[in-house]
Amino acid sequence: MKVMVVDDNEQNLYLLEVLLRSEKYEVVCARDGLEALEHIKKGPFSLIISDILMPRMDGFQLCRECKTDPHLKHIPFIFYTATYTDQKDEEFALSLGADRFIAKPIEPQIFLTIIREVIKEYEKGALTAKESLIKDEELYLVEYNKRLIQKLEKKMLDLKIANKTLAESEEKYRILVENAVEAIFVAQEGMLKFVNPRATEMIGYTPEELTSRPFTEFIHLHDRVLVMERYTQRLQGSTIPSTYAFRIIHRSGDPRWVELNTALIEWQGKPATLNFLTDITERKRAEEEIRRLNESLEQRVQERTAQLEAANKEMEAFTYSVSHDLRAPLRAMDGYTQILLEEHAAHLNEDAQSICSNIREGAQRMGKLIEDLLAFSRLGRVEIQASSIDMYGLAHSIFFELTTPESRESIDFRLQPLPRAEGDPTMVRQVWMNLISNALKFSSKRERPFIEVGWKEGTKETIYFIRDNGAGFDKRYVYRLFGVFERLHSSREFEGTGVGLAIVRRIVHRHGGRTWAEGETDKGATFYFTMPKKGERDE
Fold first, then answer.
1. Which residue, 300, 366, 304, is CA-closest to 333?
2. Strands 450-457 and 412-415
C-alpha cells in the first residue's frame, strides 16, 4: 500500500513518514506539489496526504491537478494543514475533490484511524472517484485567489501584531539597558561593538570613542594580560569564572576598580561576549581601609599582648613578694603573740592578754585575706584543664568535708541528682566549696539550717543553684555580691574576707558561664551559676 506524503517542512514530513511506516505503509515523500505530481504520475498510489502552503505548487493546485486528470482522480486525497483552517478553506478544499480535510494538530491515533477508513473505503470500492466541483478555470482562480488573499491578510495581521510585540519588547529592553546602573557592552574581535550610557559615564569617553578603539586601551596596564586571557578563554568556550575584578582607566587618568560579569553570545552571526561592569572603587577603598586597620589592630594587639605579658610578670613578682615578704611578718606577729600568751601569761594582765589575742586574730585574718587574694589573682593565669565532672559527687563530698557528723544531724541538706559538666575539676570544686561554705555560714544561726542543691535545664547551658534559709541580703545591693572585698554583713556577724564570691564569678566566667543571686533580708538566699553544655563553650 503506497502513500504519497507532501509537506515542505522536513520535521512534519519525517514524523508523518515514521507514523505511516509503523502501520506498514510504503511512503514516498515530496516537498512541494510539482515534485509530488511527478511521483504520482509514475506509479500507482493508494492515498495522497498533502499540506497546503508550499513553494512552487501548493496543495490546492496539486489537488486540482489530480482531480482533473482522468488517470489520477480515483486516488483518495487528504488535506493535512495547520495554515488553512477556516471553514471557507475546508469548503474550498472539498470542492476541489478532496476526500478529507484534517486540521493540525491532531492526535496520532485519530489521524491513523482516518487514514485507515479512507484506504478501507478505497479498497472496497466504496470510495467513488471525486472530481472537482469547480469546472470553470476562471471560477477556480477566483476562489483560489480569495483563499490566498484571505491567508495573506491574516499573515499580514499576524506579522503586524508580531512586529508590534517585538517593538514593545525592544523598547522595554532599550529602557532597561539605557537606564541600567551597570555599564553594559558587547565585545567582539577585541573591539566594543555596543555600549550603554552608563558605560560612557563610567569610563568618561563617548560611544564613538569607545567603539573605535581596542578595548584594552581602557584597561589598566597591569590588568590587560588578565583581561585578554579571560576574554580569549571565554570565546574558546573554556570553563572559567564569569565574574572577576580589574582596573580601568577613566578619561581623567584616574584608575577605577570594576567587577565584570560576562557571558558568551552571538552578535551579528559571530561569537562575542556580553559584559556587565559594576564600579567597585569605593568597595575596594573600604577593603583597603579595613586591611590597613586590621594591620594596625594586629600591631596594637601585639603591643597590648606584650604589655599584658609584662604586667603578668610584674603580677607574678608581686605575688611572690606578697607570698614571702608580707606573710613572713604576719607569721612572726602571730608566733610572738602566741609565745607571749603561752609562756608569759602570768606576767600579763587581762587587758594585755586581750590585746595579744586581738593581734593574733588580726594577723590570722590578714593572712587569710592574703591567701584569698593570691588565689583570686592566680585564677586569671591558670590554664583550664577541661574534663567531665561529677557535679553530684563533688557537691556531696564538699558538704561532708565542711561538716562534722554532729553538725550534719541538725542540718536539712537536700542534694538533687545533678548532671555532669565539662570544666576544670579543680576550679569547679572551688566554686562548690565557696558556695556551700557560704550557705553553711549564713544559715548557721538558724535553729534548723536548710540547704538545697539543685539544677535547671537551659537551652545551651545547665543552671546549678544552692538555696539556704540563712540571713539573706538586701536585694538593693545584689550587684555588690560578687565584687572583691564586697560584704553585705559585718565581720562581727559572719567571718570572711569578701573574696569568695568574686572567685566563684571569675571561675564561672572563665568557663563561659554566668552567676547571679536572689534573696531577701532574713529570708535566705539562692545563688546560681551556669555551665555551658558540651560543645557550646566559646574557646
1. 366
2. parallel
Report pLDDT digits (tens) over 358-388.
888 777 766 766 666 666 566 656 677 888 9
Residue 498 has φ and ψ, to the nearest 5°, of 80, 20
Q: Which of 35-44, 381-390, 520-529 has the lowest mean pLDDT?
A: 381-390
The full length of the chain comes to 539
pLDDT of 169 > 70? The answer is: yes
CB 242 within 8 A of CB 259: no
Going by the DSSP 8-state scheme, the letter that residue 344 receives in this structure is S
Provide the pLDDT for residue 3.
93
Burial 61-94 (b: 16+ CB within 10 A, else e): bbbbbbbbeeebbebbbbbbbebbeeeebbebbb
**pLDDT: which is higher, 322 or 453:** 453
Report the alpha-carbon distance of residue 90 to residue 303 in Å, rounded: 96
pLDDT surpasses 50 at 539:
no
Cell numbers that stand for 70 in this block: 482522468
Distance CA 39, CA 37 (A): 5
Region at 324 (left for phi over 0; alpha for psi -120 to 50; beta for the rest): alpha
Query: Which residues fall within 8 angstroms of residue 507, CB to CB, at 6 or more apart?
Result: 379, 427, 428, 430, 431
pLDDT tens digit sequence for 90-123: 888 888 888 899 988 889 899 999 988 888 887 7
Spell out the SS3 assignment of 229-243: HHHHHHHCCCCCCCE
Interval 189-218 mean pLDDT = 92
Q: Grid coordinates representing 450?
A: 536548710
For the four alpha carbons of 482, 486, 489 and 490, in that order, the dihedral sign comes to positive
Q: Which residues contact 128 (CB under 8 A, 6 or more apart)?
A: none
Grid cell for residue 30: 515530496
Rounded Cα distance, 51 and 40, in Å: 16
> How is residue 336 written as a grid cell?
610572738
Contacts of 102 (CB under 8 A, 6+ apart): 78, 79, 80, 81, 111, 114
**Long-range Cβ pairs for the range 507-511 (8 Å, 24+):** 507/379, 507/427, 507/428, 507/430, 507/431, 508/431, 510/379, 510/384, 510/427, 511/384, 511/423, 511/424, 511/427, 511/428, 511/537
- 80 has which bridge partners? 102
